From TrEMBL:
Residue ranges of coiled coil: 253-284
Lineage: Bacteria, Bacillati, Bacillota, Clostridia, Eubacteriales
Localization per record: Membrane
Claim: Kinase is one of the keywords in the record: yes
SUPFAM superfamilies: ATPase domain of HSP90 chaperone/DNA topoisomerase II/histidine kinase, Homodimeric domain of signal transducing histidine kinase
This enzyme's EC code(s): 2.7.13.3
Chain ranges passing through the membrane: 12-36, 171-190
Record's GO cellular component terms: plasma membrane
Protein's name according to its UniProt entry: histidine kinase
Amino acid sequence: MKRSLTKQIMVIMMSLVVGTIVICFLLNTTFLGTFYTMQKKNLLMESYETIQDASDEGSLYSSEFDQDFDKMCSNQNLSIIIMSADGTPMRSSVNDIRLIQRQFLDVIFGTTVRDRVMVRTDQYILERVRDADMNNEDYLVLWGTLDDGNLILMRTAMDGIRESSKIANQFLLYVGSCAIAGSVLLSILISRRITKPIVQLSEISQKMVDLDFNAKYVRGGWRKKRRDVPGSIQAEKEKMEKGNEIDQLGLHMNQLSDQLERTISELKTANNELMKDIEKKEQIDEMRKEFLSNVSHELKTPLALIQGYAEGLQACINDDEESRDFYCEVIMDEADKMNKMVKKLLTLNQLEFGNDQVYMERFNITELIQGVVNASSLLLEQKGITVEMDLPEEYVWADEFKVEEVITNYLSNAMNHAEGEKKIRIFYEKKDTCLRISVFNTGKPIPEEDIDNIWIKFYKVDKARTRAYGGSGIGLSIVKAIMDSFHQECGVINRKDGVEFWLELGL
């Protein structure tokens, strides 16, 4: 089968090459002379029109036309003479004027052998003649009159066509011989190239049986799955669609392989998504249980206090006014804590579910920090805490009101945990595209096992202490949610003598 295909390709290619050479040889022999003659005829008529236009413009016999006249005669191999009615030469392209005058008279009075008249008009005649004085060479001759009454004769030799045709045919024979030899070699190479993909297609089909879809067929042989850009893959696909049966078979196998791989991938993806959905549902159930437990725990203590002190008021345990005021203050304080916690939960819920819109604007972060610190100055003084900050004026891009909430949470957290020297230091670290704002307070470091958990809502490192200053464990969760809505980073670092909380905002 392989030898038969090779022979068939060799015969076809050799037939095409030999047939092309024979046709070109016949066309050269049969039509090259005619084509050459037509070109010469058109050349003579165009040259006549050029001379006629120069005559009409009055520049034909002036020195201005000399260069154009010489160029026309030399480039187009023309012999031209223009004479007056009495035989006086007006312009000639040859030095031997007497010779061309005699030839002109021979043409006019019919002493030359005329083959045939090709064009006849009222102004000129264009015919093919044979000059007996020039070894019977053939010429194309145009003779007649110009509009100014002068006579004109133009002629060009036809002897070059025979030599040109002979040279062209000899060259064609040399090229044809080389082409035949090349076609034999090329046919062998092509036949091998055709049979090789068939074997490779068999190997690809075996890999598909083994569920290996990485091997793909491409023109010229298969290889591992391609890493081409989509445009080149589409172009290659179009080439295979327009190719032979082997290319189309390879394309169909690629499509079958892709479809099988895609189907298996979709099944695995669907199975993976199903597992994720199951895990997500379990996580949601856990989060729901944890949330209810945390909320219940956080609300249980203030509700118990409110209930206890309210019952005490109702039972008139202490009738003095000072005791009643104390009971009312406890009830109001616990109710206020519950109200703040509910508001924070609502805020956190809006942030986590993306319901709270972010308004990005450029503002002075230094002024904002100074405003938050000034608003807390009375509380700082009561707690004996000093704040150190020497901040340069900086502008950032963010939601100003949300950033104020973050700074407030950081400062409040620092005040509640400041110990030892009781100092809070606020400082900047400027980077290429953002500004890092840090709030440091002296005190105990956060245990390493708790650092990653402090951003989780209701998580408390020291629950007793958090309860003492009324913390709910939601503040840092709100900070994290706000920074996520900005697509910016925040974090905490344990220092040698305290804790540093930081956030980054775009410049």
